[in-house]
Design a protein that fits this description.
The complex is a heterodimer of chains A (96) and B (195).
Chain A lengths: L11 H11 L4 E2 H8 L3 H13 L3 E8 L2 E8 L1 H21 L1
Antiparallel strand pairs in A: 1-3, 2-3
Chain B lengths: L12 H48 L10 H14 L9 H26 L5 H20 L2 H20 L6 H21 L2
Helix pairs in contact in B: 1-2, 1-6, 3-4, 4-5, 4-6, 5-6
Classes of the chains: A alpha+beta (96), B mainly alpha (195).
């Protein structure tokens, strides 16, 4: 029996955001937008979904006079991401 | 490559792992390439400052020109802050934070020890600073898993210490010129390695 893949993470844009955040302390909205090539609207929606399930936190502030939105992965998000990668490995090793 | 992600499509297991690996590596490279800027900045400053003091001391015969060392952080820190004010903020990771920590500690030690040597207790400051400079460079290489940087740090620390004991007065400053060049080279190696 294969473990069920987390539907929140099993989506291209949300997975890319989580992968970036898993390897860094935090990341700016503008950085995530540049890295993923997504539109602001779509990225905002996906970030909201990740925030709602508690995988990331979002902090709004200012850098100088410019508004700044910073995303950070939570321990629950780290765990979910790690479980997701393990599940993927099981799928792939079963397919060999 | 990560293209635009507008469809939020579901992925196969292989596509997912590839995406994770690409996203992770791309942001890691961005972070470390950003750290390279600081090596280039401080390398340039160290090279220019040491050369300037060497030439001034050599042609005037006055070691007081060494006070110019204190201008280095005054010029360097505002420039470093300026680099940090990118339009797109590059995130930090454990390696970039540790690199920042190592070189901040080096800066604090150098300034404090130099001040002590000038105002309180005379000491062989070139010897002390070249050893901690080599050590900081060597540890940076270990963190970056880069053998040329490790070897350069080792040679600078050990070779510089021997050189500092063998040569006198202003010629010792050339060790720091070499150290500055090594920092510059480290920065460029990082830029190429994480392109």
């Amino acid at each position: 029996m294969f473990p069920k893949l987390d539907p929140i993470l099993h989506s291209e844009l949300r997975l890319a955001v989580m992968s970036i955040l898993a390897g860094s302390d935090d990341a700016d909205f503008t950085y995530l937008k540049k890295q993923t090539g997504a539109t602001s609207g779509n990225l905002s929606v996906q970030i909201d979904k990740l925030t709602t399930v508690g995988y990331i936190t979002v902090e709004k502030g200012f850098k100088g006079k410019m508004p700044r939105t910073t995303c950070r992965i939570t321990p629950a998000g780290q765990q979910a991401f790690s479980n997701y990668v393990e599940a993927l490995k099981e799928y792939l090793s079963a397919g060999k | 490559m990560i293209d635009t992600m507008e469809q939020n499509k579901e992925l196969t297991a292989q596509e997912s792992l590839r995406l994770i690996s690409e996203s992770f590596n791309k942001s890691r490279k961005d972070i470390l390439r950003n750290s390279a800027k600081y090596f280039i900045l401080w390398g340039t400053l160290l090279t220019l400052t040491s050369l300037a003091i060497y030439l001034l001391w050599h042609f005037t015969g006055k070691p007081q020109w060494n006070f110019l060392w204190f201008a280095m952080p005054v010029i360097g820190y505002p420039f470093a802050a300026l680099i940090g004010k990118n339009s797109i903020a590059i995130p930090q990771n454990e390696v970039s934070k540790m690199l920042g920590g190592i070189w901040s500690v080096f800066g604090v030690f150098s300034i404090t020890l130099s001040a002590i040597a000038v105002f309180l207790v005379p000491m062989h400051i070139t010897l002390v600073i070249v050893i901690i400079l080599g050590l900081a460079e060597c540890i940076s290489g270990v963190l970056l898993k880069n053998w040329p940087i490790i070897i350069a740090g080792f040679l600078l620390g050990i070779g510089g210490a021997v050189f500092a004991l063998l040569v006198k007065s202003e010629a010792q400053l050339l060790i720091f010129t070499l150290g500055g060049v090594l920092l510059l080279v480290t920065g460029f190696i990082m830029k190429i390695q994480y392109k």
